[in-house]
Amino acid sequence: MKPPEILFLCTGNSCRSILAEATLNGLAQGKLHASSAGSHPAGYVHPRSIALLEREGFATQGLASKSWDDLPRTPEIVITVCAGAAGETCPAYLGPALRAHWGVDDPAKATGSETEIEAAFEGAYRVLRHRIEALLQLPVAQWLAEDPARLRQELERIGHSEP
After folding, report:
1. Within 10 A of 109 (CB to CB), how many other CB atoms are there?
2. Is 10 marked active-site?
3. Is residue 121 within 8 Å of 52, Cβ to Cβ?
4. Confidence of residue 86 (pLDDT cuts 50, 70, 90)
């Protein structure tokens, strides 16, 4: 049986959703599988995202900015990572998936010194990793089959947690 597929979705698919995809796949040990996509993909993965993932020991080969129209599998769960508080509109995935929102500020829009920009990427990664670690403590496959409402509630709760 294939592990549940989680789609991390944002607009550009160059930073946050890529960070989440690689982090979940690196930590999940086959229990879950992540992909990422964007409603309007940037067409590239931000080099700072790649560098951060490599520093953290995650595989980056094959990561690409892609459209949700190009998904190889229909996801069971879609998690949007756009920061609605920043005035960013999250795309609405129209498939049958269970949906949750984990708002994270876009580090690609960070300004300031090199140190400040790097801190924005590190901060986004830390929030996503914290939430992914919490997700991995849940019986996702079981709740998808037996209690999707409970799973959605837990995913939303995790989406408000901070490291």
Report:
1. 13
2. yes
3. yes
4. very low
